[in-house]
């Protein structure tokens, strides 16, 4: 959720762990055993059907995925980028193919989930590249501009997942088609959805049923604190957060965060923000939030987590200092942030999961992230979840895995996720990201983010 910071970025090369090396998964090398010690539960991905390092050789991803070499496919032109940013899988993104590519593989009939990996070279012959990706002749990614999708940065890795691809003819077909310039692809993987583990122990939760569905009331103060903030406090967000029931209430089985356009104090919008600090936290485990997202352009909704002790890894400020929105305190990003779900309605249905830490955050667009297409995110409820172990953070929508961030084993710079975090739910209006796709649509108010439940489970 935090996008802005004034701190110098730590050289990413310091943070590369031995386990980012390309490995032959069949050989048991010293590096292999290191990977297994660090992340035993990532060693085998049983849901994996097919993965290809487009334009390159065999590669083992930090999430344990074994990518096969791109052989036997003569489509397109192979190229190389040596300055990849924004991913733990740099070698995968360093090689690509450009052109109207096609890939096909015999698979059992069924439903599949596809993750595509893109990064654009700076030397692209086209000023702008726009292309679409098709799976089983259906357009699953339309008019993609890779660089624009990573805040106008070339070299930045982009991972996009699409779900519900149905194969009925025994062969999975993937195609790229250029609209302006040619298509470009650096890698892809295909999974079958795995059953959701429902055996976890519930630590704490709120179903937002309150005293009854007919009662309108404030969020339960035993678990939640409602923030009252001025406009522009963080991220240049346009809304003030209030504790009025107009902006935040439990109603009809949901927590409702409702944004309004209205003159309020020195701002033009109001909305709701709530957090569970010192009331509901966890260290490892899983958080599941079932929510329906707002649709109006300018809205920026978020389900995310911050440390219980924001000063855990701060170097220039201490307990009691104001740190949110501060340029002078490095509590953020040092102590970390986990964004389970972010959605800006100028890019409807494109849901993001992101981690921020001192090694990887907004500056230079080094933050690690994945995105997933959630059709009807503003119409239907979906379950947004993160699964957190000492070795990895894995991000899901409706049980579909779309992003894995691995503990590189090099300490807090890239893994400050070793202390308790709490949950934050908010609906921002505008801000640097909410306004990025055009002005706030004032005809779209009020806007609502509705949360059916928040459930925190143990490991
Ligand atoms: Ca590649
Ligand atoms: Ca509910």
Automatic annotation (TrEMBL):
Residues 1-23 form the signal peptide. Keywords: Signal. Residues 227-459 form the GH16 domain. SUPFAM superfamilies: Concanavalin A-like lectins/glucanases, Galactose-binding domain-like. It holds the Pfam family Malectin. One of its GO terms (molecular function) is hydrolase activity, hydrolyzing O-glycosyl compounds. GO terms for biological process: carbohydrate metabolic process. The keyword Cytoplasm does not apply. InterPro entries: Beta-glucanase-like, ConA-like_dom_sf, Galactose-bd-like_sf, Glycosyl_Hydrlase_16, Malectin_dom. PANTHER family: GLYCOSIDE HYDROLASE FAMILY 16 PROTEIN, GLYCOSYL HYDROLASE-RELATED. Belongs to the glycosyl hydrolase 16 family. This is Beta-glucanase.
